[in-house]
Amino acid sequence: MTDNRMFWIVSAVAFCMLILIYPFTMVGGDEGRFVQDALRIGKGEIPIADYGTRAPILSFFIYSFTELFGRSLFVFRLPVILFSAVTAGFLFLLGKELFSRNTGLLASLIYASLPTTLWHNVVIKSEALEILL
Between 83 and which of 41, 55, 70, 128 could a Cys-Cys bridge form, CB atoms 3.0 to 4.6 Å apart? Predict the structure, then answer.
């Protein structure tokens, strides 16, 4: 199996794991602020915030997803879930390059199944994007 295909398989497995946890999470405080900023972007306004605590790029991603898929809590959270899933895929590639294919696979699956990853990367927070970048 090619590494490119394995990247997508690992990302898809991580995505499915996060989707399974999604219904059991509550709405957090920052989520409303990010969504409010995204809706302001939709109105043509520029969200003004403390950029040290709330990265505006995440609000632009949320706005883009709402334009494509409509407005719902799942759609608002979808960019963060995707960022976390793709991070697992990149972790596979990094582990493969530095050590071995099996090490990369193990590292990505451990990351994807960590309770902190599963619980915190299904709510709207900028950490998932920061880890990916």
Answer: 128
